[in-house]
Amino acid sequence: MIKIKRLVALGILTAMFISPFPLSVQNEKQALALDNNLGLTPPMGWNSWNIFGGNINEEKIKQIADAMVTTGMKDAGYEYVNLDDNWMANPARDENGYLIPDPIRFPSGMKALADYIHSKGLKFGIYGDRGVTTCCNIPQSGSQGYEERDAQTFADWGVDYLKYDNCASDSNLQAGYEKMRDALLKTGRPIYYSICCWYFAGPWLVDCGNSWRTTGDITDNWGSITRIIDENSKSAAYAGPGHWNDPDMLEVGNGNMTDTEYKAHFSMWCMMAAPLIAGNDIRNMTDATKEILTNKEVIAIDQDSAGVQGTKVSASGELEVWCKPLGTDGTTKAVALFNRSAAAADITVKWSDIGLDDGSVAVRDLWEHKDCGTFSTGYTANVPSHGVVLLKVSSADGAIMYGDVDGSNNIDAIDYSLIKMYLLGQISEFPASDGKLAADVDGDGQITALDFSLVKQYLLGVINKFPAQK
Ligand code: GLA
User: What is the pLDDT of residues 88-138, one digit of tens each?
Assistant: First the structure.
């Protein structure tokens, strides 16, 4: 592998590969895209469901808003206070067809609650459903056929975030979610659009939502965490600024896992550039829970502006190494040494596995808050069972170079423009590629969306070989 001191112009590349589709297709779709300038880094906040279920009222939510400020959650970056299901009256609409809150539990109304949350410098999120009822099954609670009216109601109340669920709905998933996207845009109020569709339903999600749930509901146990990590990783290439895979809200602090497991859960959500929506009772949390949720060094991994979702780069049984490139110069990465097994074990990350030159690589442990030194070929740590050692590594000797298609040993704008022209079909071969289909990484003679996502990950250093090169 050719090596250079600096990896330049990765920003251009990121922009180019942000969608797995050729640019002509992107342009065609742009008119329909969700263009609300929100979620440029994954959203951070709190949601009522994991801890309270349907048992919510305005007093509780106001106390949560207070706690967001007094516990340091707001200071750590959490901003949305989100109601989940069961805020509506039963039946959910008034005689004119407008959604109304439960008059006993939310006697002051939603505008007043939004005002209170805004007065704390926080943002207000609400919950709806694309079908005829929400998942709590309250009559008239779904937005099907009421999309524009409900979006306008939410905007009038001062809603900043909509989680839009998938219960009691017809099979036309894409049309249903696009209707609410368009209705939200029509209100003119910037409202983060959180699609709750329970699986990666297709690349159209990138243009439809600011994030989309990739799995069924999370539960507070280790099996749920590992299942979700695996599922959420399948669509890693579709994540980026403004559009994220959502592996569901956090269970940190809800009591059924150990603090080691909660640290691993939180670390992996940050590695996957996931929305960080706390799901515990932040009015009463232990110091350990607070330290996990407010660890700014770990949160910075999630919030890195390049917005690349980290992925697994190597594994030996249940011992895994995950990497998330940070920034755009290729020299800095977050690394998670992830131990799924029932016993503590040593795990090693090799620099060559994460696209870094051997040489002088500085390692910092983000849970210990300490610099570990510099290491020449890799780093080994002992990782507890169901635990993660989370590192930030920076190479003084530079990144391994990918994409030197003209053979000049420089990655420059011309390389990227050649790759772009090739993918757009404007040239038929790279100078260095002997006329092969350069992006046909699975070797089936076709360039597909899957290929593009692999090319993107390869060029960003997230994976170090294509399937066809094994
Ligand atoms: C679905 C969603 C959950 C939660 C509940 C509420 O199951 O996936 O996150 O919103 O509905 O009923």
Answer: 999 999 999 999 999 999 999 999 999 999 999 999 999 999 999 999 999
Residues 262 and 359 in one domain: no
Residues 200 and 318 in one domain: no
Q: Select from 395, 410, 445 the last residue of a domain.
A: 395
Does one domain contain both 296 and 331? Answer: no
d(CA 40, CA 467): 31
253 with 278, same domain: the answer is: yes
In degrees rounded to 5, what are phi and psi of residue 352? Answer: -65, -20
Q: Using a 6 Å cutoff on CB, does residue 251 contact ligand 1? A: no
pTM of the entire predicted model: 0.85
Q: Of all protein residues, whose CA lies closest to atom 1 belonging to ligand 1?
A: 135
20 part of a folded domain? no
- The answer to the question of residue 228 being in a domain is yes
Cα 376-380-385 angle, rounded to 5 deg = 165
**For 238-267, what is each residue's pLDDT tens digit?**
888 899 999 999 999 999 999 999 999 999
Residue 57 to residues 50, 53, 106, 128, 142, Cα–Cα distance (Å): 15, 11, 6, 17, 20
What pLDDT, on the 0 to 100 scale, is given for residue 34? 85
Measure the CA–CA gap between 222 and 265, rounded to whole angstroms: 8
Report which ligand 1 atom has the smallest distance to the Cα of 135: 12
Pocket of ligand 1 contains residue 84 by CB under 6 Å: yes
Find the domain containing 380 and state its range.
310-395
- Please tell me the distance between residue 142's alpha carbon and the centre of ligand 1 in angstroms: 13
252 close to 292: Cβ distance less than 8 angstroms:
yes
Do the Cβ atoms of 418 and 405 come closer than 8 Å?
yes
Contact 359, 391 (CB under 8 A): no
Of 249, 270, 302, which marks where a domain is finished? 302
Confidence of residue 451 (pLDDT cuts 50, 70, 90): low
Annotation says 170 is catalytic? no
Q: Give the distance (Å) from ligand 1 centre to CA of residue 137.
A: 11
Angle at 393 (CA atoms; ends 251, 317), nearest 5 degrees? 60
Please tell me whether residues 324 and 249 are part of one structural domain: no
